[in-house]
């Protein structure tokens, strides 16, 4: 099976590393600077045990003669429109190609289904702990990754793609309710991001303050209010688990949005913007979500000033 991975950041780079290590046929599609770095230096992944892996990878240049069987989409959300245009122009997506987006949120599904048709688009949610350094090295913070994959509207052929993706270090589960799984990941990321960005600390540090648990309950209330207006039913048990995760005094967790904020890197605010827009469309108050968005946007403007 020919696999194209669009994006060589923390998600795309680590998934590509795991697949290539299992001798899967992998090619990368990356923006020009990243593509040049991959050609010159290879894919660099430092695993959780400190070992640096530097391996040659195939990089797509120009058009392709044959479409790929599977396209894994792992760019930054802001880069998705450019990636979609490239895929349309270079012949990478054919009649039998399936696209597996590993972006957070739900807005990308509309773009992909509108461009390529609902039949070609799968749902996916990935859980991994990794970041990317300025030199392009993917730093794995904890070993392994978990991938949930499933049909959005058409159920044919999902199992064969899941089988191809089952390699050491990548646990793959096929879920008929993949949209629910994607929503659960989304609200977890948003909830933990809002708590840590407003509280300016890890979950345990915030939980140890007198009003930290109150902040966690308020954020959970906002998330509940927004999701209640959407055409998705999230299990009550899962929402209760989210509430516990937001106020766990033993959790040293900090999401990537907060880590980027602290490190002075541009943060992917799009994942918060998407949920905030849904709240606005349904007239659901979301002051804490919007406060976190303000702080991230101010920080992003300092890193990349608007012209």
List the helices and strands and how they pair.
Blueprint: E1 2-6, H1 10-21, E2 25-29, H2 32-41, E3 43-46, E4 52-55, E5 58-59, E6 68-73, H3 80-90, E7 93-101, H4 107-116, E8 122-132, E9 138-151, H5 158-165, E10 170-174, H6 178-199, H7 203-207, H8 212-227, H9 236-246, H10 256-263, H11 270-281, H12 287-303
Parallel strand pairs: 1-2, 1-6, 2-5, 3-9, 6-7, 9-10
Antiparallel strand pairs: 3-4, 8-9
Helix pairs in contact: 3-4, 6-8, 6-9, 6-12, 8-9
Q: How would you describe the overall organization of this protein?
A:
By secondary structure, the chain is of the alpha/beta class. The protein folds into two domains: 2-176, Rossmann fold; 181-303, N-(1-d-carboxylethyl)-l-norvaline Dehydrogenase, domain 2 (Orthogonal Bundle), CATH 1.10.1040.10. Helix content is 46%, strand content 21%. It is built from twelve helices and ten strands. It has helices at residues 10-21, 32-41, 80-90, 107-116, 158-165, 178-199, 203-207, 212-227, 236-246, 256-263, 270-281, 287-303, and strands spanning 2-6, 25-29, 43-46, 52-55, 58-59, 68-73, 93-101, 122-132, 138-151, 170-174. The strands form two sheets. A five-stranded parallel β-sheet has the order 5-2-1-6-7, sandwiched between helices. Strands 3, 4, 8, 9 and 10 form a five-stranded mixed β-sheet that branches. Strand 9, helix 5 and strand 10 form a beta-alpha-beta unit. Helix 6 packs antiparallel against helix 8 and helix 8 (212-227) runs antiparallel to helix 9.
